[in-house]
Amino acid sequence: MYRPLIVRRYLATSAESITKQQQFNVFDRSAKLVQRTRIAKLNPELSRKKEYLRDEVALKTIERLAFITRDFTKVLDFGSHSGNLLKNLCIDTEIPPGADYAETEITKQLNNDKKIIQDKIKQLYLLDSSSELLYRDIKEPFNQQFKGEVIRCVADEETFDHDCLKESDQYDAVISNLSLHWINDLPQTLANINRVLKPDGLFMGTLFGGDTLYELRTSLQLAELERKGGISPRVSPLVHLNDIGSLLNRAGFSMLTIDAEDVIVGGFPDIVSVCEDLQAMGEQNAVLSRANTLPRDVLLAANEIYKSLHGETDADGKVTLPATFNIIFMIGWKKSETQPQPLARGSGQVNLKDVL
Q: Does residue 254 belong to any structural domain of this protein?
């Protein structure tokens, strides 16, 4: 079975400030809203079926949250999509058929972690720009299994003008999974997230890193270069791992933890299947300078290049295509006087040379 990517801002007070802000715009936010809404509205079942990547990242987020022992009375799921974090908190993960002892114990521990995290959260705010996506699963049984209160808020993730985002120092934790990569002014958004957190509040986020879909990128670029003599922006630009630390520091976060993990999804029969899954996920290209069409000859050439460079041959001799998603995980804490502080420079009592 195959599975697979992946500004507007504050109202300006002068024409000069508007021009200054617009120069940072890379993504067409209105087009992205239409892309994310279409499948959720027209074909909810297909939309659910293609959310395997968001569900997988939600589980990995739960695993990381389990290591944090404090309570989170009020939590904001920023860019919540259909509520993947909520769903995976409420539904037990099944033990895979034929699982060995280690896999069985890991799954049991994950389900136990879900219950512990649920007990910590008294209010969970789900915020997303697409109302159709946000309310798509509101009648699903898992909503009744959550012990706390769930508040759904429809708002643009860039403007921060919703009532639930206006007050500063209000959330114990902000979680954001696979949403920030479509933000134009990411530094400002991270700073706003820092603002709404309580002192010593937790921010835990994930986003697609720069190596995401490198197979698709290289195949399209080589095909277009061969057939058209140039390259169009077919895939969204993404943040690289090395940039995350400076972005979080600039936004006011401290005690950072940053890591990355590749999720490789295999079994695609052709490049069209990859693109169809991205479309069903609402993750197709939304760059302002994007080309409106992909010529058939370029697509056919890209498919053959994809198979030649990245194809995998199964036991039956059939060539299938993999898609790599580079997921960046980041944790930051809002600065507080109660946080552990480094000792003053020169106050050490042991010479490092004596230790080594």
A: yes
- Asked if 52 contacts 278 with a C-beta cutoff of 8 angstroms, the reply is no
Q: Is residue 220 part of a domain?
A: no
- How many CB atoms lie under 10 A from the CB of residue 183? 23
Which pLDDT band, with edges at 50, 70 and 90, does 352 fall under?
confident
Provide the pLDDT for residue 105: 94
Radius of gyration of the chain (CA): 22
Cα–Cα separations (whole angstroms), residue 71 to 65, 74, 159, 168, 194: 11, 9, 29, 19, 18
242 inside domain: yes
Contact predicate 286/181, CB 8 Å: no
pTM of the model: 0.87
Residue type, 208: F
Phi, psi of 29, rounded to the nearest 5 degrees: -65, -35
| For the chain, the helix, strand and coil percentages under 3-state DSSP, each to the nearest 5 | 40, 20, 35
Q: pLDDT tens-digit profile of 40-80?
A: 999 999 999 999 999 999 999 999 999 998 889 999 999 99
Band (18; pLDDT cuts 50, 70, 90): very low
Residue 115: pLDDT above 90? yes
DSSP state of 129: S
Nearest to 56 by CA among 206, 201, 199, 209: 206
How does the average pLDDT of the chain come out, rounded?
89
Dihedral (CA of 10, 11, 16, 18) sign: positive
Domain of 66, CATH number, reads: 3.40.50.150
Which parts of the chain are beta strand (E)? Answer: 74-78, 123-128, 149-154, 171-177, 197-208, 253-268, 312-313, 319-334
Per DSSP, the three-state class of 22 is: helix
First to last CA, the chain: 53
8 pLDDT more than 80: no
CA nearest neighbour of 277 among 266, 293, 289: 266
Is pLDDT above 70 for 124? Answer: yes
- The residues pairing with 254 across neighbouring beta strands, listed in sequence order, are 333
Residue 298 lies in a domain: no
Half-sphere exposure of 345 (CA within 13 A, CB side): 0
Provide the token pair at 157. 């993730």
